[in-house]
Amino acid sequence: MEFQGRDIISIEDFSRQEINHILDVSRSMEPLASKGSDMLKGKILATLFFEPSTRTRLSFETAMLKLGGSNIGFAEAEIASVKKGENLADTVRTVENYADAIALRHSLEGAAKLAAEFSKVPIINGGTGAEEHPTQAFIDLYTMRKEKGKIDGLKVALIGDLRYGRTVHSLAYALALYNIELYLVSPESLRMRKDVMQTIKNKIPVTEDANLESIIPHIDVLYVTRIQKERFPDAAEYAKVKGAYKIDLKTLKNAKKDLIILHPLPRVDEIAPEVDYTPQARYFQQVWNGIVVRMALLSLVLGAVK
Ligand code: NCD
Question: Where are the domains of the chain?
Fold first, then answer.
């Protein structure tokens, strides 16, 4: 297993053994996330975010600061030279002179892969269009393992926008490497992308359903997602599915007591605020886990840990 200098583009580039190692290193980062460390002293991360973000960018930057490193970057394309017509390849060939690694978020699928072809420093995909969001998947797996003790044996339901949601694509690829049962719950028009389905359905049992009702009593993990309004080509299509499902106390009546509810956030209206106070809600713990997992990823690709 070699991580130093490696790009993190797709979860499909990682084996189960490598993912488990990332989760182990993440656990070892927990005390450092509280106390701080100078493991990455002198190192610089550039965060190039061409699309909106709160957690991904700020947690990458927080992770870097907690490891003694520094950050540069931009949080909107409007203020960068892309606005003047610079292409991504030139932006990357510039920023690699300033930084030891680049975390990139872009609205176009394939953007992180393209950036990696031009970059001498590791590219970390912070979300590309509706395609993938691999670092979020590591966080989701880490949260499941931390909360449930292990990933094997779990029954996991992904609910919401499985078509345009990039976090569920990366997560589904990753879960298919474990011994789990997967339930995919979404309106008909937002079913899981075909290319992802093709890959996962030969590896694990997958059930698709439009309703959560018959599934909820059996599952250990409920992973809720936002309908990705900004990715709909047509506003009328969005109007048809807007508010199609909502998790509230009534939904949870028949759920297992030790069910955990995850959400990559931001939430709009798919989880009622009343759920926040149930023992099953774990989405804000998941936010904390985002720091330790990104600390692990940065120290691995920058060669500070093996
Ligand atoms: C997600 C994203 O950007 O894909 N957010 C995140 O990184 N935690 C989910 C979303 O925007 O719905």
Answer: 11-131+288-301, 134-286
